[in-house]
Amino acid sequence: MEAPKPEEISHPPMDQLQGLEYCIDSNPSWGEAIALGFQHYILALGTAVMIPSFLVPLMGGDDGDKVRVVQTLLFVEGINTLLQTLFGTRLPTVIGGSYAFMVPIISIIHDSSLSRIEDPHLRFLNTMRAVQGALIVSSSIQIILGYSQLWAICSRFFSPLGMVPVIALVGFGLFDRGFPVVGRCVEIGVPMLILFIAFSQYLKGFHTRQLPILERFALLITVTVIWAYAHLLTASGAYKHRPELTQMNCRTDRANLISSAPWIKIPYPLQWGAPTFNAGHAFGMMAAVLVSLVESTGAFKAASRLASATPPPAHVLSRGIGWQGIGILLSGLFGTLSGSTVSIENVGLLGSTRVGSRRVIQISAGFMIFFSILGKFGALFASIPFTIFAAVYCVLFGLVASVGLSFLQFTNMNSMRNLFITGVALYLGLSVPDYFREYTAKAFHGPAHTNAGWFNDFLNTIFFSPPTVALIVAVFLDNTLDYKDSARDRGMPWWVKFRTFKGDSRNEEFYTLPFNLNRFFPPS
Question: I need a labelling partner for 165 at 20 to 30 A (CA). Which of 208, 277, 352, 415 fits?
Fold first, then answer.
């Protein structure tokens, strides 16, 4: 038997991911783009509802307060997404709420000066103002790092090898938002997971008028089917005598969003009153801003690949971080109970639909703004049980993680040095945050527990984040361990041409600012 040729065994590395129907600057028809944009809006609802649903009751807020926070968060998400796709990195990324901010926000909620307020509504308002003040101050971190191009300088220490654990753990690090949540209501979650995989992968060859409708709109179709099925179970009384936790996760009438939502309400800055400022709260929140910066850096790299674009040049990445800082500032001014970061699930949906079009994401931002103003209609979609979203996350988070692993094609994985760095960074990136989570669950406080609350919040927030731990480990090892003779093994010859705007001719096509703004902000 003839020996196989080398090209038959291995696959050549590719700058841009192949197999996408629409890349970053190509657009589907308007009808298809609107439907795809609505699909991204539906997916973004999961995090937008989950964060306020958890935090608002802890603050003393009622269902009306929760609805207003959800509406405000979606409104600001829409504005931030438009700003990022127009003037930031220009990648097709939804800018949503971030779980990274929950640690310092919970610390603010438990601050003795706030928790001892007896009137629940007054406690809610005072806590909201304290969170707003912390977000406004801490947003300066990303604004300064981004617009001063300091983050561009820092990114010069990143290599394809160093980015693999970071991007991979942007997806893998959210494992607790996936099947552990599906398991709370398996009769809804498991059918959703199976149907979504079947429609998006096994039945993707099904075409209607030359459109792969099941692959392209798998999320919309399966959410509609399973939501109707969940409503049928609820109406038939299947959960009438089940435990409270099961009812919360399975029933379609437990969110209390529709009845509490106003018909029309336009969120506006300082709607909760004047923010209050506390140095300790702001320092704790700065850690969450740094975590958001790291997570978004990994997500931007993943989004560029799933949009069939080249990796964003250093100054474009830094520009995007600057606009994300503006987004956190807006979150503080409006009062969203969360900072801003790239929505990982929406990045995954780019790959699932094979549509990386920027226009689709801008349309989804329009839906966020529109339905956040029309409260009743937005609340209807926001009442989808979170178990349904968790089932989709199992696929989409995994897809983003695999994009991170795909950067290994530019490195030499026959090098013991590279195997060591990749393995240790991935393992510690999962293991350290898991230790912090387990410790907190048992002791009701993080491992960092000193008399300085801001210091505790800072350390606990940093080490709660898998991508941040992975970045610290991977970048340190990659730049200190035999780094002088390993440039080729690390993938630097491939990476270096994408560091600067003029390093590759395709950068101008993907990342040039609109309205001829590059005349006033020339790329470096």
Answer: 352
Identify residue 509 by its one-letter amino acid code.
Answer: E
The DSSP secondary structure of 376-390, one letter per residue, reads: HHHHHHHTS-HHHHH
Q: What is the mean pLDDT of residues 419-432?
A: 97
CB-count burial class (<10 Å; 0-12, 13-18, 19+) for 111: middle
**Token pair for residue 383?**
């009442």
* pLDDT surpassing 80 at residue 346: yes
Res. 243: pLDDT tops 80: yes
Q: Which residues contact 226 (CB under 8 A, 6 or more apart)?
A: 188, 191, 192, 195, 388
Angstrom distance (rounded) from CA 95 to CA 47: 11
Question: Which helix (H) or strand (E) element contains residue 372?
Answer: helix 358-373
Chain Cα centroid distance, residue 141: 19
E strands along 21-94, which residues? Answer: none
pTM (2 d.p.): 0.94
Q: What is the pLDDT of residues 441-460, one digit of tens each?
A: 998 888 988 888 889 999 99
The fraction of the chain above a pLDDT of 90, given in percent, is 71
Q: Single out the residue of 93, 66, 95, 100 nearest to residue 79, CA to CA.
A: 95
Q: CA torsion, points 179, 17, 517, 370, in degrees to nearest 10? A: -30
Q: Which string of b and e fits 374-396 if b means at least 16 CB within 10 Å?
A: bbbebbebbbbbbbbbbbbbbbb
pLDDT of 327 higher than 80: yes
Element (H, E) at 95: strand 95-97
What CA–CA distance (Å, rounded) separates 104 from 279? 13
Average pLDDT, integer, range 268-281: 94
Which residues is 97 bridged to in the sheet?
A: 340
| Interaxial angle between packed helices 30-59 and 120-147, expressed in degrees from 0 to 180 and rounded to the nearest 10 | 130
Q: For residue 387, what are the β-bridge partners? A: none
Mean pLDDT score across all residues of the chain:
91
Report d(CA 3, CA 9) in Å as an integer: 10
